[in-house]
Structure formats: structure tokens, C-alpha cells
């Protein structure tokens, strides 16, 4: 689906990849932009810069996403492209038991990295299906394909987000719904600055602008999987062809990593 002429909604738009998605959507001629994030200057400034409607709120609040879509559509018209981009890296650990982060951290990762995608899809899909057209751009991660050695919270929830994206693509492709799963490795954002795990940087750190452009290229091409870092497809092929060998190579990689 072309971005030009569409209303585009983006979560996590106050910084990083979300802010870059907002600029890229504007550059490609989006008809309207609905930007959301936690309240703060990041959201206000990107909304002012791109002439967008800013709606602040916490995605963990079950009432927030339905209200976001309702208010956004009342102001700007039906959402054509919904970008579930907000995410959290909570639960990254440098040593110790990988599942050690407490239940509240697991719940946070689940709610932000997965449940917010579920809720956004529930809010936009009925209208999109009724119109016979729409696209979901889900910012996931290469950790959803390959597992980040330093974070079970992140890897497990990003795998779940990918499973969700596949489910929607399979169930609703024939209803005119496209899905793009954007799965980068390291991207130069505030989130990466908080993550010490060197695996996220091993194949180079891309800019948020490059990744956002590739994400919308994927949307416009109707592509399901977008892997901005070139090596990710090779790792996937290795994993699919020899799962045991892939686990062993990841164990060896983890053992070599700084602790
Ligand atoms: N930076 C990387 O290396 C990298 C790599 C792969 C995937 N990703 C994914 O890209 C997406 C964007 O992350 P980023 O790198 O731009 O980092 P970021 O920290 O700049 O952006 C994440 C945004 O999500 C928002 N957010 C978090 N919890 C929220 C909540 N409860 N309610 C509303 N908003 C909330 C934050 O306020 C923030 O603006 C995330 O899904 C992340 O997992 C990032």
C-alpha cells in the first residue's frame, strides 16, 4: 500500500524509530499523521514538526488504544496504515539466570511488546476489513527471529509479536490487509544506548532513518518480512537448516561475549 494519501498512525513516535517513521510518512505524502507516545516533549516536538495530531497515553492502559484510534479517526479519517512501533527492552541482564527478571518486568514486556500490537490490530482491523484495505507495520526485532542472548523477556515477547504478525497476515490477507514485520538488529536510538549486549551491535548499528525508510519500502512493496541488516536472512537460513547447530553456535557466541 502506498503511503501517499493514507492516514498513518504510529505508536512510540516520540523518539527513535517511531520519530523517523513519522518523518518518513510525512515525506512520502501521508494524508494525515496520528502520533502517540507517553506524554513528553519528544511527542510534542515531532507532532509540531510534522503537523501531526499528537495523542499521549500509556499503551498499558487497556482503554487507551481504542480511544487513540477513535479520536484519531474522528479528527483525520480512517487509518490506512497502523504502525505498532513502541517497545521496551526491560529485562536485559548482564549475568545470572536469564529468566530472573521479576513477573512485573515480564508483564511490562508482554504488554508493551505484544499486547499493544493485539489491541491496535483489534482497534483498526474492523474498519480496514470493511473498507477492504489497510496495512499494519509492526516494529519487531531480529530478536524475534534469532533470539538476543542477553534478554529472554525481549526475545520471547518479540517472537510472540512475530507470531501475532504472521497470524494476522494469514487470517486477513484475503480481506485486503497487508502486514509488514520490521526486524532490525542494532539501531541508533535511546533503547540501544540502554542495552549493553554486544550481540545487538555485532553486525553494525543502522540509523533510525534508514530503518524507517526500509519499513515503509516494505509496506509499499507488500512485503511481510523486512530485515534491514543483511546478515539476518543468512542466520535464519542456518537456524532453519540446522537448529541444533544454531543453538550450539549461539552458546559459543554467548560464552565469548563480554559479561
Ligand atoms: N534500537 C534498536 O536497536 C532496536 C532493534 C530492533 C528493534 N527495535 C524496536 O524498535 C521499536 C522502537 O524502539 P526504538 O529503538 O526507537 O527505542 P525508543 O526507546 O527510542 O522508542 C520506544 C518508544 O516506545 C515508547 N513506549 C514504551 N513504553 C510505552 C508505553 N507503555 N506506552 C506508550 N509508549 C511507550 C517510548 O516512550 C519510546 O518513545 C521497539 O519496538 C524496539 O523493540 C529497536
Automatic annotation (TrEMBL):
The protein's matches in Gene3D superfamilies, at most eight in alphabetical order, are given as: NAD(P)-binding Rossmann-like Domain
Keywords carried by this UniProt record: Oxidoreductase
Question: What InterPro entries does this protein map onto?
Answer: NAD(P)-bd_dom_sf, Sc_DH/Rdtase_CS, SDR_fam
Q: Name one GO molecular function term.
A: oxidoreductase activity
Source domain of life is Bacteria
Q: Do you know which Pfam families this protein is assigned to?
A: adh_short (PF00106)
PANTHER family for the chain:
BLL7251 PROTEIN, RETINOL DEHYDROGENASE-RELATED
Annotated family: Belongs to the short-chain dehydrogenases/reductases (SDR) family.
- The name this protein carries in UniProt is SDR family NAD(P)-dependent oxidoreductase
Species for this entry? Falsigemmobacter intermedius
Amino acid at each position: 500500500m502506498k503511503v501517499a494519501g493514507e492516514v498513518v498512525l504510529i505508536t512510540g513516535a516520540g523518539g527513535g524509530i517511531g520519530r523517523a517513521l513519522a518523518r518518513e510518512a510525512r515525506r512520502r505524502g501521508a494524508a494525515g499523521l496520528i502520533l502517540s507516545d507517553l506524554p513528553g516533549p519528544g511527542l510534542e516536538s515531532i507532532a509540531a514538526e510534522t503537523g501531526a495530531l499528537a495523542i499521549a497515553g500509556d499503551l498499558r492502559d487497556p482503554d487507551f488504544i481504542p480511544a487513540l484510534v477513535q479520536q484519531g479517526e474522528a479528527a483525520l479519517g480512517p487509518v490506512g496504515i497502523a504502525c505498532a512501533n513502541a517497545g521496551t527492552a526491560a529485562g536485559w541482564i548482564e549475568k545470572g539466570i536469564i529468566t530472573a527478571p521479576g513477573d512485573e518486568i515480564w508483564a511490562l514486556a508482554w504488554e508493551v511488546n505484544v499486547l499493544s500490537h493485539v489491541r491496535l490490530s483489534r482497534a483498526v482491523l474492523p474498519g480496514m476489513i470493511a473498507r477492504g484495505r489497510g496495512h499494519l507495520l509492526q516494529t519487531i526485532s531480529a530478536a524475534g527471529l534469532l533470539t538476543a542472548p542477553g534478554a529472554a523477556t525481549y526475545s520471547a515477547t518479540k517472537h510472540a509479536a512475530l507470531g501475532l504478525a504472521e497470524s494476522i497476515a494469514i487470517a486477513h490477507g484475503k480481506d485486503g490487509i497487508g502486514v509488514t514485520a520490521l526486524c532490525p538488529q542494532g539501531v541508533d536510538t535511546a533503547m540501544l544506548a540502554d542495552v549493553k549486549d554486544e550481540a545487538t551491535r555485532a553486525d553494525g548499528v543502522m540509523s533510525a532513518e534508514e530503518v524507517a525508510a526500509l519499513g515503509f519500502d516494505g509496506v509499499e512493496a507488500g512485503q511481510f518480512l523486512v530485515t534491514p541488516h543483511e546478515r539476518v536472512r543468512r542466520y535464519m537460513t542456518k537456524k532453519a537448516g540446522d537448529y541444533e547447530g544454531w543453538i550450539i553456535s549461539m552458546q559459543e557466541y554467548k560464552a565469548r561475549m563480554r559479561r
